[in-house]
């Protein structure tokens, strides 16, 4: 399978068409962005690590009956995936208060939440990806019906249950994470995008050391070394 034409370039990936209809190649980039791309950087090898981590986690979720766009990893920084029409909602699941939640609601940073909190954010860089509710989704025409929103929530909670235990067994706390979903050629809603330290917050279970993109956001040191540690624990 070969790259034919670049269809899209985002902050962390490039998408290419292939010889086969509805099948794409996703290439993971070394670029780093934060604060709606106001802060930019790059670390050599970051894309390779995110590709490996995402591939492993997509396979893990597929084994646990979560349907995804993932087909297979091609090489160190490219995966083969189904073409989907992305639903313009970032589905964020939070187990521990940090980041924007603490700023918005004044909840103490690091406080364990009484239940997993699922939030929707409208995917629009120009608007700063604002927090939205079900009624906003109806007004914006984002989804066809309320059942689709409930499906996104239920999938997020199910994925959280699977990943939280998986990482806990590897001495990592899954603090929060962002998911994106899309509709495949048959109209099925499947998990898409990536699952990596770019889209998840991981803290060491014993020290609370941050092993995710917050290292770039907060100038805490090498992103690559942190991502390498996450990959090492995933594969252990």
From TrEMBL:
Gene Ontology terms for molecular function: ATP binding; phosphoribosylaminoimidazolesuccinocarboxamide synthase activity
Keyword flag Oxidoreductase: no
SAICAR synthetase/ADE2 N-terminal domain sequence ranges: 7-233
Keyword terms: ATP-binding, Ligase, Nucleotide-binding, Purine biosynthesis
Any one biological process term the GO annotation gives: cobalamin biosynthetic process
Keyword Nucleotide-binding on entry: yes
Origin superkingdom: Bacteria
Xref: SUPFAM superfamilies: SAICAR synthase-like (SSF56104)
EC number: 6.3.2.6
Reactions performed catalytically: 5-amino-1-(5-phospho-D-ribosyl)imidazole-4-carboxylate + L-aspartate + ATP = (2S)-2-[5-amino-1-(5-phospho-beta-D-ribosyl)imidazole-4-carboxamido]succinate + ADP + phosphate + 2 H(+)
Recorded metabolic or biological pathway in which this protein acts: Purine metabolism; IMP biosynthesis via de novo pathway; 5-amino-1-(5-phospho-D-ribosyl)imidazole-4-carboxamide from 5-amino-1-(5-phospho-D-ribosyl)imidazole-4-carboxylate: step 1/2
InterPro entries with a match to the protein in the record: SAICAR_synt/ADE2_N, SAICAR_synt_PurC, SAICAR_synth, SAICAR_synthetase, SAICAR_synthetase_CS
Family: Belongs to the SAICAR synthetase family.
Protein name: Phosphoribosylaminoimidazole-succinocarboxamide synthase
Organism (species): Helicobacter cappadocius
Gene that produces this protein: purC
